[in-house]
Write a structure and sequence with these properties.
Layout (H helix, E strand, L loop, with lengths): L2 E6 L20 H21 L4 E6 L16 E4 L17 E7 L19 E6 L2 E2 L2 H11 L4 E7 L3 H7 L4 E10 L2 E3 L3 H20 L12 E7 L2 H7 L6 E2 L4 E6 L2 H22 L2
Parallel strand pairs: 1-2, 1-4, 2-3, 4-7, 7-8
Antiparallel strand pairs: 5-6, 5-10, 8-9, 10-12, 11-12
Helix pairs in contact: 1-4, 5-6
Amino acid sequence: MKKAFLSVDLEGLPFIVNRGQLSTGNPLWEEGRRIASELTYAAVKAIHDEGFDEVIVADSHADMINIYYERLPKYAYLVRGYPRPRSMITGAEGCSAAFFLGYHAGVGTKDATYDHSFSSATIKELRLNSEKASEFIFNTLALGEIGIPVIFVAGDEALREDVEKFAPWAVFVPLKKSYGRYSSISPSIEKLNEDLAQGVKEAVRRMSNGEANVASIDKPVNVKIDFLYSGYAEVAEYLPFVKRVSATAIEYISNSVLEAYNIMELLTIVASAVKVMTGQ
């Protein structure tokens, strides 16, 4: 049984330019869901057409209940809901390759739609071993630790540099070119579906030819999180292995990216709880 993993985010998808398209309960969210679902169906079909028996789809934006499940084919399985372990890469174990759809640039990237790294509400900057870390980088390195290569990435053109640096073997398909944080241009869905199919085909060809690798990083892993407000860092410092390095920033050391990932997720959830409690 040959399985593929597909992680789907929203900010890097075409036509997504408004906060309402990204938020549950907002009328525009239905538009965002339709865009995400249509492209997910196209990507799943393309992956299956290239010889994968099953496709594990991880709905990976916000509450992670965005993709309409009714039209998923019988060979697709959908991971939904948050919080969950390993967040955007839950369910990847046992897959031979990973595909990313709708991925966006990391926080602080110029001309990138809704640039952020895991939590725009709490994180100002995220670094791994001193390198600025986007969600793409964190997820790619975490999957590398369990032997899964990321072979295909589709998203905001502003993410291309990260892909070329951390997964140069992967096929990158731009779904949009951002003019700034709140505007972009994209081809039609029809054209993008063709691009996805061609990109997946090329990605699988490269993997079959032995050109794909698993990403890695030096260990132990040093993680630095610079929060938006000092209160989030204060609470994070309660953990004995967390070191406060400035009013808003903390750092910690992990033996693996997977361990670092779970700690980062926990600290983000705690910061979000503090935000709700204090209003900041």
